[in-house]
Amino acid sequence: MGLAWRAVAETGLRRFGRRALTILLRVAAAILGGYLLAAGVSALAAEALARVLPPSEAVVLMAMLAFLIYLALLIWAFAERRLLRVLLVLGVGGPLAFAGPWLVGMAV
Amino acid sequence: MKQGFRASMGWLHTWAGVVLGALLFAIFWMGTLSVFDREIDRWMMPDTRLALPAAPASFDVVAARAGEIVPAGADWWFLLSPSEREPLFRLGYLDAEGAFLTRQLDPASGAILPDQGTLAGTGFIFPFHYSLHLSWNQLGYWLVGLAGMAMLVLLVSGVVIHRKIFADFFTFRPDKKLPRSSLDLHNLTGVLGLPFHFVITLSGLIIFFTIYFPTVIDTVYDNDRETFFAESFGGYQRAAIGRPAAPPAGDGASLDTMAAQASAHWEGGTPSFLRIWHPGDAAAYVEIRRSFARQVTMNLDTVYFDAASGTVLHSHAAKPVMNVQRFLSGLHFIQFEHWVLRWIYFVLGLSGCVMIATGYLFWLESRRKRHAAQGLAGVRLVEGLTVGSVTGIVVATLAFFIANRLLPLGASFAGAERAALEMWAFYLVWLATFAHAWARPGAAWREQCWAVAVFGVLAPSLNWITTGDHLAKTITEGYWPGAGMDLLLLAGAAVAGMTAWRLQRRGAAKTDQTDRNALEAAE
């Protein structure tokens, strides 16, 4: 009896732990990865726009739009069912995009 | 995530709300109060309850007084001219050690007003709204930024999970059971306030784009932020020479002439801010900025003059995209003069507070029975959090006002000055309300409502006793900053008192019912 209870409790805990872990990963990817992706994409776009606009205007425009890009990424991070996709796009793509301007600089 | 878009948005709405709602409430509450920050200043600084003179002192007169106050070696000092809501000159300067200090000067004579020993609305409540007074690594700004993004997420997900968005415009069933009526009120304030809440949150974030997205600047400007700021916000710099200004022109050209020239440059715009850079130095120069009183956009119009000769050195105006940013900032800061709009902002800000609080109530009431049955601690934990962050911050704010009226000018305790003591009153009382909420789960709402009612009457009474400005006087004299503050305090006390009384009656009815059930069971 005692053993059975323990088994149930342990599976429950493991299941709970697994669920908690997937939620934690998704939240972290959304908040951190989403931020990095929004900031990186905005920086790259501002760099491109600075060729047609005064540089300060390109910066202000993209820094304002960055909040809306971030908002869209946050919503998507919780709407997308496949966690792996979220982790790839935000968890991997985010840091890559954030380092993007620096990577572009290295390549040139 | 959950099956389906709506279900996953429901999950997101619930949990983002529960986790960040307390922080959001604090930001909304302080932001709502900041709508009337200057009026709170007048109430908390009785010596500044002045009438705006028809002809305030000229810049030249006040600058001469300022020159007596500002210590030699200060890198700059500025004057902010009087306005309807702040009828005094504000003098700010960096002393030789680099510390920022402010003084208030009489609008008619330029005479220095006694230090009021308080941070009041503009110094405590307003910065709390965007920085939480957590200056370490700008942690407060980032927490507010996170909460702001969460607010946008909550608004989007809230719209998605709505099935009858139009019907909810007209639905409020206060007589229904609490989960239903709190959800009605949550939807009503959420849907009606939606455009305001979205714009106020997004604009609040956009104000601080240089803090939240600095890498966009660094990428385009190769880490040279100074150049970015000069090109976008404007700014002109000329180094001090280290040699005093030549004697005949020692006092420099007339500041009033420069102000008139700046006004002509802006086709009639009013100069309201004047800063002297490197005062007394041969390379001293004057920065004059245009007032925000007549337009939503917080313009960046600035003209720089050579202090000795009065010739124009440089002028700046915002470029088109920057003007959009300044417009959105102005929409948020409401520095323009418009009483009707100011009240609408206040009411909509309160509706945001109601929306957050009722969101919590719905979460609690729809789980209370289940959690009790399953022995879960969630409801109890979140209820304490809710009480402390909703009624608790109101009680703490009132304690801040009361401490302001009780502490004599120049008071200090344990090395803390008067202004710090007022803040301690706020934080200690706020902490106590959380402790109280977790210690007395059944009674916390009622008891803290009673506290709001009592404090809300106490604050205007103390204002009367300590300054002689009672309502009959302020209303007959038409002194609305004072009367308005007292009236709002009393109105808040009345609402809280009524709520406490209703909770008490319901609590009594419930106890009766339980007693009767127990009696029946015993029989």
Portion in beta strands of chain A: under 5%
Number of H- or I-type helical stretches of chain B: 19
Number of strands of chain A: 0
Largest sheet, strands/sense/barrel of chain B: 7 strands, antiparallel
Report the end-to-end length of chain A measured between terminal Cα atoms. 69 Å
- Report the principal-axis shape of chain B: globular
- Helix/strand-derived class of chain A? mainly alpha
What profile does the largest beta sheet of chain A have?
none
The N- to C-terminal Cα distance of chain B equals 52 Å
Low-confidence stretches of chain B: none
Provide the gyration radius of chain B in Å: 26 Å
Give an overview of the whole structure.
- The complex is a heterodimer of chains A (108) and B (523).
- Chain A contains 4 helices and no strands.
- Chain A has 108 residues and is mainly alpha-helical.
- In chain A, helix 1 packs parallel to helix 3.
- The mean pLDDT of chain A is 88.
- With 523 residues, chain B is of the alpha+beta class.
- Among the domains of chain B are: 51-114 and 216-331, no CATH class; 367-518, no CATH class.
- Chain B is 60% helix and 8% strand.
- In chain B, a hairpin with a 7-residue loop joins strand 4 and strand 5 (285-290).
- Chain B is globular and about 100 Å long.
- The A-B interface holds A 26, 31, 38-40, 42-44, 46-47, 50, 53-64, 66-68, 70-71, 74-75, 78-81, 98, 101 and B 1, 3, 5, 8-9, 11-12, 146, 149, 152-153, 156-157, 202, 205-206, 209-210, 212-213, 215-221, 228, 231-232, 319-322, 324-325, 328.
Short description:
Chain A is mostly helical and 108 residues long. Chain A is 90% helix and 0% strand.
Tags for this model:
heterodimer, A: mainly alpha, 4 helices, elongated, B: 523 residues, alpha+beta, 7-stranded antiparallel beta sheet, 19 helices, globular
